[in-house]
Write a structure and sequence with these properties.
By secondary structure, this protein is an alpha/beta fold. 37% of the residues lie in helices and 22% in strands. It has 6 helices and 7 strands, in the order E-H-E-H-E-H-E-H-E-H-E-E-H. Strands 3-2-1-4-5-6-7 form a 7-stranded mixed sheet, covered by helices on one side. The chain is globular. The structure holds 5-O-phosphono-beta-D-ribofuranosylamine (GRF).
Length: 197
């Protein structure tokens, strides 16, 4: 596959961007069907922005704070940047904003998210502590299409990891994160391949 035929994707982050790095690196392989053309963060100075630039990807900060409670106007500004970059798919990777129905509708069927649990178990926050408190034998992560309900959209792929005795939420989070780094690029590649077929 030539670079010209790769699907152009944007990754939205708020923090360290380790999943974003995995997505960018996978996208830079010659046989990968997508390329990350833009990394956007709602946090000025998010660590992931510099990581993206080091990998040669354009990285833009578009802070939500100046917009106050007006989420939709901030999202419209985000949407404009996405469209300026001719993005075909939006990939959320630790983007810590609750989206309004407006942005979800604007990218309906073309926005993915990764969540650090085996959905439908544990939507929302503190997933690892909740899995441990429940005495679960395994944990994992889920890639899904973004819909208006939080962490509710159709599931595209999951990876499972064991929960081991002595696990703390931090230890478990690290094991799950390693699985995320493999799962997310695989599922995004499969998704864009199917979308093009
Ligand atoms: C990941 O655990 C992901 O599942 C969740 O946010 C975290 C982002 O981590 N949605 P990173 O910034 O990719 O390291």
């Amino acid at each position: 596959m030539t670079i010209a035929s790769k699907t152009r994707i944007a990754v939205l982050i708020s923090g360290s961007g380790t999943n974003m790095v995995s997505l960018v690196k996978a996208g830079q392989q010659a046989d990968c069907p997508y390329e990350v053309v833009l990394v956007l963060s709602n946090i000025e100075g998010a660590a992931g922005l510099d990581k993206a630039r080091e990998l040669g990807v354009e990285a833009v900060a578009l802070p939500h704070r100046p917009y106050g409670k007006d989420r939709q106007t901030h999202e419209q500004a985000v949407d404009e940047v996405l469209r300026q970059h001719d993005v075909k798919l939006v990939v959320l990777a630790g983007y810590m904003r609750i989206l309004t129905p407006w942005l979800v509708q604007a990218w309906k069927g073309r926005m993915l998210n990764i969540h650090p649990s085996l959905l439908p178990l544990y939507p929302g926050l503190d997933t690892h502590a909740r899995a441990l408190a429940a005495g679960d034998a395994e944990a994992g992560c889920t890639v899904h299409i973004v819909t208006e309900g939080m962490d509710e959209g159709p599931i595209l792929g999951q990876a499972r990891v064991p929960i081991l005795s002595g696990d703390t939420p931090d230890i478990l989070a690290e094991r799950v994160k390693a699985a995320e780094h493999t799962l997310y690029p695989q599922v995004v590649a499969e998704f864009v391949t199917k979308a093009e077929a």
